């Protein structure tokens, strides 16, 4: 969608959604049938309140990362149906009155308000991620787009956060999933929200351009196997990093270093003759990228060819002021090969007197996921960076988060959805949500109150009740109280609202929040559930009694 006047709140123009397919027609048909029925009944302007929330944390864990808010606000700010779209809606609703098309033509979100938890926050089931207020006719048309924009974003951000947790703070995490993602939008969204969830870079060039995410990548096995010999290298000249000297035959210089490695007392028994076509590929790539040389070393044999060939090229680059970055392993026993590679690098540093050579970066890929990284940690490894694709971007272990969008109030009257399945009972009333912190600085509980209830106070004892089990209750004395829902859209009102922070700030918020969680809530196996409770006077209990 093109930016509309509706998006010029406070004198600012808010761009449309990243994906141009996100328009008011990105909707389930029943949203339009309900909009027509509301209009036909004269109910379309009744003031409604909807909560967007989820019922269960994904991946068997006890936390979720909220993402997708920025795209929702971009959609909201530019919400407008074109004449062509209105004509299509008319065709989808046979027998609908022409006056309904006039209603759609004038529809925007100037009378809608959105309150949300800041994007990148750690969130929990039942607590509203977003509260959307406005005329029921238009708010109903926001349900499907909002759920579409939040569900996958939050799921993949949580998946990324879980991978970060198991990998540890010191490791680099690279998202390599574009080729395996569910279509172009799946790839772009995954790159964005994996970065938000704690990944350091992506291989996705389009995502790098759109969102400013750092890009990482080297070459594939195809590049290595495309070479037959060093005779194919036409331009053998390498200018030194400082520009003062020139090597006229870098290929010969690499060959000289390979012989030195072969005759080194500590390395001679590891390999004999390396694959010369692989050496040609590495040399050619280094000539193209002397400042960022990183080689994929498992096309033929890692220890008998790939590592020695890489070292020969890296040592040759070193003579002219360049420092090679390291290697990538994409197959085999990653724990064993990473340790052997590190030992080889350290031996080169020691034997050939090259300071810092033992600290070459070792990157591992090859269908990695939480479980394989955890297994590598238990085995012991020397991997510095993990390139993760399929299992990350497809959220292989869980297909969807399951967010819902439920009416909780209309015309100031609370509404509830009842069910024999207690997890599907909605929580009525317009609510406020708070996070209460203990003396150690960790969050203790999220509590929901009625809109007009007094907020919890620091140092005052507060009775909290379980949502569905009246016998479960506890007193909490918060040392800090944080109100969760903040206003991100006030329609045409002149009041200030929260600004949408850049992606990097959202990422920093996510990392900080995850670090501030109690460790037992975060662990992979048997995590402790985080408590989400109500104030004892919440109207919800009156509905269930």
UniProtKB/TrEMBL annotation:
Q: Which residues form the Nicotinate/nicotinamide phosphoribosyltransferase domain?
A: 173-424
Question: Does this entry carry the keyword Ligase?
Answer: yes
Q: How is it modified after translation?
A: Transiently phosphorylated on a His residue during the reaction cycle. Phosphorylation strongly increases the affinity for substrates and increases the rate of nicotinate D-ribonucleotide production. Dephosphorylation regenerates the low-affinity form of the enzyme, leading to product release.
Q: What does the record give as the reaction this protein catalyses?
A: 5-phospho-alpha-D-ribose 1-diphosphate + nicotinate + ATP + H2O = nicotinate beta-D-ribonucleotide + ADP + phosphate + diphosphate
Name the domain of life.
Eukaryota
**Which intervals hold domain Nicotinate phosphoribosyltransferase C-terminal?**
430-536
Q: What is its EC number?
A: 6.3.4.21
Q: Which UniProt keywords apply?
A: Glycosyltransferase, Ligase, Magnesium, Manganese, Metal-binding, Phosphoprotein, Pyridine nucleotide biosynthesis, Transferase
Which pathway or pathways does this protein act in?
Answer: Cofactor biosynthesis; NAD(+) biosynthesis; nicotinate D-ribonucleotide from nicotinate: step 1/1
Q: Which residues form a coiled coil?
A: none
Database matches in Pfam families = NAPRTase, NAPRTase_C, NAPRTase_N
Q: What biological processes does GO assign it?
A: NAD+ biosynthetic process via the salvage pathway
> What is the enzyme's class at the highest EC level?
ligase
Q: Name one GO cellular component term.
A: cytosol
General function of this protein: Catalyzes the first step in the biosynthesis of NAD from nicotinic acid, the ATP-dependent synthesis of beta-nicotinate D-ribonucleotide from nicotinate and 5-phospho-D-ribose 1-phosphate. Helps prevent cellular oxidative stress via its role in NAD biosynthesis.
Q: Which PANTHER family match?
A: NICOTINATE PHOSPHORIBOSYLTRANSFERASE (PTHR11098:SF1)
The family assignment reads:
Belongs to the NAPRTase family.
User: What protein name does the entry list?
Assistant: Nicotinate phosphoribosyltransferase
Q: Which organism is it from?
A: Arabidopsis suecica (Swedish thale-cress)
